[in-house]
Design brief:
It is built from ten helices and 43 strands. The protein is of the alpha+beta class and 650 residues long.
């Protein structure tokens, strides 16, 4: 009978044999005399056809040559495998039965009619490459599409970048510093997904001097036209009713995906989880993936790492990121969609920061020398005419007034080769770059020069889910922007972008206030008379009588804002302001509950104001976005300030 062989290296662990919770049949684990040494099985196994399946044995075992190894699939189909060699303190070798395919299997030892469960592995059977790796190669494999090798695909270990040869085979002389390898998805292709996770990277597990094989699969596609949904901070932590609120946001995102049509993808901007609650609420990356996979189907999520996706029980930047790289994605990588090139980087630097929750804020903002070296290699393969999109969690700069920015915001570089804002932008001068970030939970756009634009894209969780908890249905960030996501639509090298508010249709792009009426609501008593809340009361009270205040959260220089009274245009000026709805939805009730609440309303620059001539006139607000779409509100005044007017519509 034709057989297929498998090589597995499995370490021994004294407590794995007690794992009877993995039983599927009542006769399992009845033969207590089969195994005297406890055995663990790796959760994932990739193996080349023609190898021998071998379990490492560290002690004496009484497994016999006429025992059988059983691999049982999730569909309870059993494959009987024959033992070929037993050596105490070394190996237990066996062959796999003909017909076995890649999948998840429970491994049992069978004697007579009794079984003993050993462990479970997710088995991938690799086809023979027909080559011997070069002596210096430590990572190799093949990139295929429709069972044929794909030449010219870029493959990286986070340090080096190589191309597949004419057969689709790659070899890397890798030090395995990051313990993973990934492909740079080429234009015209996609990769399979495991739930929302695109399978473009693989974990490495062997020492740097041991060659290991990792294969990748591509699927041809025409995605020159596609839509990218960009999702800022989620902060899912199983608190503040966040999972239910997230489900409501997901409804809007799914609605936008269905209406976009064609190819759609998602990009996160970090802080999908909230490390503060990883342990107390038992909500980490696996739980995040469970939530996301239950919410979204048939769409790939590319991920960016945030500061709250670091493990504060570990020491240093590399170790703090380890769980993320195992469960989600590399901390820096790139890929192509259609005619655009995307680069994901991590500018949260915990270098030399120790373990412990008290050190959570000790990171600095920069790009490490390692990332900058890799970035230069990546860009060497990118034509200067290709639009380049870079994501990182933290922005490069931050508004510091109605018209000014803090250009020292990303300034943590203190070693040779590291990059702050100016260094980073200069390194990309040959390309047309759009930089996308989260972290602030607010929205702003800035054009640094004619070839580099920055977009801070808001937050899925808005104000850490607080406004929706305090005032259900009113999901607002500290700048008053609704919780939501950016929508980038691509057609070849052309693209446009907009913002979609969760719980609203795409026509909801601004909020206009009659400040005469707002002053009646934002009063000291609303915040429990607390002194700090009175700062907000004073800011609102300072507006002259008959002021119209408009919050245009996705504003950039491509927008226009007009305010007219009875058909006559009023003088409109920018304002660095607090959003009244956020004050009353979150800040006021939080001040009633505590003297020093977090996540209160912040001043932000995407506000506009004008002074009407009377308190009773009709005012029209006309906002035109960067894409030429016009949004209008006719305000019959006095216009009462009611939070219910701004709540989610669906």
């Amino acid at each position: 009978m034709k057989t297929t062989h498998l090589l597995i290296t499995a370490l021994l662990a004294v407590f794995c044999m007690a794992a009877v919770s993995c039983e599927e049949k009542p006769e399992d684990n009845k033969a207590d005399d089969i195994v005297t040494t406890y055995i663990s099985v790796p959760s994932n196994t990739e193996i080349e056809e023609g190898a021998t399946f071998s379990l490492v044995v560290s002690g004496k075992t009484n497994i016999k040559n006429d025992d059988q190894i059983i691999l049982r699939s999730v569909a309870n189909q059993e494959y009987v495998c024959h033992i070929v060699n037993i050596k105490d303190g070394s190996l237990l070798e066996f062959e796999l039965a003909d017909g076995i395919v890649s999948g998840t299997y429970k491994i049992l030892v069978r004697r007579g009619s009794s079984n003993y469960y050993i462990g479970t592995t997710n088995l991938t059977i690799l086809r023979p490459l027909g080559i011997e790796p070069d002596p210096s190669t430590s990572v190799y494999g093949i990139v295929t599409c429709e069972d044929k090798g794909v030449p010219g695909v870029l493959v990286s270990d986070g340090q080096d970048i190589v191309r597949t040869d004419e057969r689709g085979i790659y070899q890397i002389q890798s030090q395995k510093a990051w313990q993973y390898v990934f492909i740079i998805i080429p234009s015209g292709y996609e990769v399979p997904c495991q739930g929302i996770l695109p399978e473009f990277h693989a974990t490495l597990s062997k020492p740097a001097n041991v060659a290991e094989r990792k294969d990748f699969e591509l699927m041809k596609t025409n995605n020159d036209r596609f839509t990218l949904f960009v999702c800022g901070d989620m902060h899912l932590a199983k608190r503040n009713n966040d999972l239910a609120q997230f489900a409501d946001v997901a409804k809007t995102l799914n609605d936008a995906i269905s209406k976009a049509g064609g190819k759609c993808y998602c990009m996160t901007l970090g802080d999908m989880t909230w490390d503060v609650y990883w342990y107390s609420n038992s909500y980490t990356f696996p739980q995040y993936l469970e939530t996301a996979n239950a919410s979204f189907k048939d769409i790939a999520f590319f991920h960016t790492m945030g500061n709250h996706d670091n493990d504060m029980n570990s020491v240093g930047d590399y170790n703090k990121a380890f769980r993320y790289t195992r469960d989600i994605a590399p901390t820096f990588y790139s890929f192509n969609l259609g005619k655009a090139h995307f680069i994901v980087l991590d500018n949260i630097d915990y270098n030399n920061v120790g373990a412990g929750d008290a050190l959570r804020g000790e990171y600095v903002l920069d790009y490490t020398a390692e990332q900058m070296a890799w970035l230069r290699k990546d860009l060497s393969y990118v034509d200067a005419s290709t639009p380049v999109f870079i994501t990182s969690h933290a922005p490069l700069s931050r508004p510091s007034g109605a018209e000014s920015f803090n250009d020292k915001y990303m300034s943590g570089a203190n070693s040779s080769g590291e990059a702050n804002m100016q260094d980073f932008i200069a390194s990309l001068s040959a390309y047309n770059v759009h930089f996308l970030s989260g972290h602030t939970h607010n929205v702003f756009h800035r054009r640094h020069n004619d070839r580099f634009a920055e977009h801070n894209e808001g937050a899925i969780c808005a104000s850490w889910w607080w406004s929706g908890k305090e005032t259900p249905g009113l999901h607002l960030s500290q700048d008053g922007a609704p919780g939501g996501f950016a929508v980038w639509s691509f057609d070849g090298k052309d693209f446009k972008y907009s913002f979609r508010a969760a719980g609203h249709d795409d026509k909801y792009q601004f909020r206009a206030y009659d400040m005469n009426e707002v002053k009646k609501v934002v009063v000291s008593e609303a915040g429990g008379g607390k002194a700090k809340f009175n700062d907000f009361v004073s800011a609102v009270s300072a507006y002259p009588a008959n002021t119209i205040l408009v919050n245009v959260w996705d504003y950039d220089d491509g927008w226009t804002v007009k305010i007219s009274e009875n058909g006559n245009d009023l003088a409109v000026s920018k304002d660095y302001a607090y959003d009244p709805a956020h004050i009353m939805a979150l800040t006021a009730p939080r001040y009633k509950a505590t003297d020093s609440p977090n996540f209160t309303t912040a001043k932000w620059p995407h506000f506009f104001k004008a002074k009407a001539s009377s308190a009773n006139s009709t005012v029209t607000v006309t906002v035109t976005d960067r894409n030429g779409k016009v949004f209008t509100e006719t305000m019959s005044r006095p216009k009462a300030f009611n939070l219910s007017d701004y709540k989610n519509k669906y």
